[in-house]
Specification:
The structure is a single chain. The chain has 7 helices and 5 strands. The chain is of the alpha+beta class. The strands form 2 sheets. A 3-stranded antiparallel β-sheet has the order 2-1-3. A two-stranded antiparallel ribbon has the order 4-5. A hairpin with a 2-residue loop joins strand 1 and strand 2.
Amino acid sequence: MRARRLVAAVSLVVGLVALTGCRTEPGVAAYVGDQQITENTVDSLLDELRDSSAATEAPELGGLAPQPPSRSEVVSALVLGTVCDQVSADRGYQPQGRTEPVALAGQLGLPPESEYVRQLAALYTCLSGLPIGDSVAPTEQELADVIAAGRTAGVIPPDTPDAVVAGQLDGPQLRNGLASRRALAEAAGEYDVTVNPRYRPLEFPVLNFSQDVAAVSVLLGEPGSDAVTDVSSPEPLPPTGADQPA
């Protein structure tokens, strides 16, 4: 049976589990093996987006412009892209689909010509070639975590019993999302990923309830840090309409 593969959809994004290590240098946001993702690179991508947004503000709409991603989102995309490229090169995986920057930019409300959008499109294209294997049945704890996230976000009615919600959630989308998380965590275990303490804990959505509510997330890098940071929590990327588990 052919292994099912990750779909290059915005709502099915995968993440990485970092190996232990202690690599911290000023100006480095993350390491993937011997490759560095620098803070200057993050600054450059965000500056370009802000400049593009400022240039396209519409006065007749009150000067509102698309909200740029957080630094955490940018770091996540760069880390995931680097790891996916390495995994694909080492194992000979080939993309099974292509994500076009124009289509992705339309979902995110960002300029299609921006480097950040191009990086994301390349990431999702790469992810389409990674096999996820068999679907994964959720444990009771995993179902409880998904339900708790949905209730906290207000997307699950508070008066609906957990048993009813669990029966609605436990289907192919959730099981494939858990399989995606497992597959990428295992693949990333072969690479030395270290995240700057200012971005820890860094989670990335694997499956979304809606545009801004993650149902399943995966941890990127180390689990946490005592460092004080002003970095905002990562926002889940918008899903396609058919990829919402509930």
